[in-house]
Each structure stands twice: as C-alpha cells, then as structure tokens.
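Aim 2 progress update. The chain analyzed this quarter is reproduced below.
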Amino acid sequence: MPPSLPKTVRFEHEARLILIGVWMPPSVFSFWLAWKAGFSTGGLVTAAILLGLLWVVLFYVLESRLVRPVQTLANVIKAFREGDFSVRALGENPSDALGILHAEVNVLGEELREQRLSALEATALLRTIMQEIDVAVFAFDQNAEVQFANRAAAYLLGQTPERMLGASARELGLDQYLKVEEAVTEDASFRNGAGRWRFGVSSFRQNGKPHRLLVVSDLSRELRAEERLAWQRLIRVISHEMNNSLAPIKSIAESLDRLLSVQNPPDDWRDDMHRGLDIIAGRSDGMTRFMASYARLAKLPEPNRRPVEIRPFIERVGRLETRVPIVVTAGGDAVVEIDPEQIEQALINLLRNAAEASLEKGGKVYLNWETFPERVEIRVLDEGHGIANPANLFVPFFTTKPSGSGIGLILCRQIIEAHNGRLTLDNRPEGGCVARIILPIPDHPE
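Predicted structure tokens:
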C-alpha cells in the first residue's frame, strides 16, 4: 500500500493563497495610499482593515470555487487508492474545465469499479473451479510455502486446506517435485492415495513475487480403465478366434462319433474319419499359430539402436520383395538411430502387404523416402484397391486375408513407436494405399 501524504503538504497551497490573496493586496494598497495621499495613521489603519475584510470575503468565495473542488477530487482519488470505488465527485459541469475534470474522475471510478467487480467474480469462479476439480493443486511462494491448496490436495495428504496454509513443501513431502522442469510420471504413495501420478510444475507471479504451481494428477484410474478396455478387446478377439476353431472341431467330432456308433458303417468310413481328423488337426494348428502370434506380439524386445545410413538400408530392403516390381526412388542422405533388424522386419511386412494388394490388379509397389532436418519419412505405395475398413487396421488379430494372422500391422506400429516414430496408413486419391514411417533423426526426438 503506498504511503499517505504528509499533512504539511496539504496546506501549502492554501497558505500561499491566503498570503497572496488576503494579506498582500491590502498591505500593499495601504502603503500606496499613504505614500500617495498622505493620510493620517488612523485613517490608513481603518482603510486597511476595511480592505482586509473585503479581501477575506473574496478569499472565501475563491476558496469555495477553487480549493474545495480540488480537495474533493483529492478525497475521491484517495478513496480509489484505498479500493473504495463507490465515492463520486459532485459538481459535474461540462461548461468549465473543473466540471469536466470531475466528470472524468467519476467515469474513471465507474470503470475501476466494474474492473474490480469483474476481477472478483473471475477470482471467485476460479477458486470454485479449483475446489471442485478432482486434481490436487498446490500454490507455493518463493519460500516453498503453501499459499493455496484445493480440497483434492488436502484430501490427498489427509489434511484440511486451512492447516496446510504456510506449510513448507518439505513438510508435505512435495519438495522433490517442485524441482522438476517438465512434467514427470511416477509411482508415489500419499496418505489417502497410492498409485501412478503425474506431477506438473509451472511458474507464475503474484504481487510481483515468483510462485510455483504444482498439479498432481492420479493416472491410476485412467490406466485401469484403459487396461480394462484392452482386456475386453483382447478377450473379445480371442473368444472370436477360439469359437471359429472350436465350433467346427466340435461339429466334426460329433459327426465322427456318430459314424463310429453305426453298426454297419459305409465302405468309405475310414476316408471320412481321415478327412475329419485332418480338419480337426488343421484347426488345432490354426489355434497354435494364433497363440504363437499373440506371444510374438507380447514379447517384442527393446530395440538395439545403432547409427544406420538410410539410403543403402532402404535400397537393400527394397530388393527383398520379388513378386511385383518395386520402384525405389532415392531421397536425401541421413543417419538414423534404429534397430535395423526390427525396422527391416516392419518394412518387409509393409512391402509384403503392398505387393499382395498390387498383385490383385497387376500393379507395382513404390518405395521412397524424404529427409527433413528433424525426421526421415519412408513411404510404401501400392496400386491395389485401397483400405476397405480403416477403423480396424490396428486392431490385434483382425485380418481380411484367408491365411493372415492379424498382427502384421500392429507389430509394425509397435516396432516403429518403440523407436519414437509414427506409422500411418491412408488411401491414395488415385487408388491404392500409402504407408508412412516417420523416424526421428538423432538430437531431434519426435
């Protein structure tokens, strides 16, 4: 709060006005009369008193017109400074400068009042929102002491917001999280919560002083929901695949049992038995391959990265597919940090899919790449019919091929994402599909 003005300053203007407007004119005029007319001393005194009284009356008139309006404005501005914007200055008169000044001060007061009201309403709304959200929010001052904590923060630590005010981050066990530069996710245990948490820290200033805002988000609920959804999808897919295999096995087994129960079986009953058992064996092999594919997807190892020149690597992979012509268009030179065996496997899968799509129409496959300062983009284009059902592209075990396992694309994406890259598949306007692999260049992680 700014210091108040000293009282001596308040009367300097009035003192000068009294000295100049009351005492100096009659005194100077009296001496002038004495010098000019040679009046007696008594006459000069009487004249001086009468003139002085006249000047006093004039001074009070002058004060009411000049000094008091200025004092009124000073009182109004002082009220504004103290946060009271309801005070107004009387005497608005658009015909003189002082009245215009009064009007402008009143307009300023109204605007300040509205701004103050808006700020209070916004602050109240923000505090209400902060209290109602289920994310723990702490505000610390420059001494790492709590200045604000919402209900979620108080519940997390098993305290009340009032008791937490003024507590240090060390006392609350949060000092280590105030030092992080970026948001971190880790396991932590608090009095009323344990699990996976995200800690985010940001800076702000209040009253010119630096503060830190710590936001603690519980990720366990979201992770459990995602985990439950993943299990539901997996069980649905496995159930579908198992039913597809078990239903014919059961039907054929029942047929074979009836065949063996016949007293006089037909002459070719052995052939029927062999065919039925072959079908059962084939479906069992299919189930074995299905489970092996799942195990392969679940046990993908971490990439063993090393520097690889992109040009000879892609040109070599492009020569591995021989069923259709592979048109390789060279791009720029670059070095990427990858596991060449894993990325090669992903590219082979994409080239195989593109070749099978192009075989249906007798087309070609195009393989090219483009380098950017921060990434390399590899593209595989085919001349097939395009993607019929894009929504299920990366659903595990979903396939439209009679002999497909349904893990090729999901395995490719898992490999590329393990390299901090991205895989996208889109239909081409001219027909066919384009698969894009985006890999970051070292020192430029995606």
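Residues 365 and 382 are 5 Å apart (CA to CA). The longest strand covers residues 193-206. These observations will guide the mutagenesis experiments scheduled for the next reporting period.
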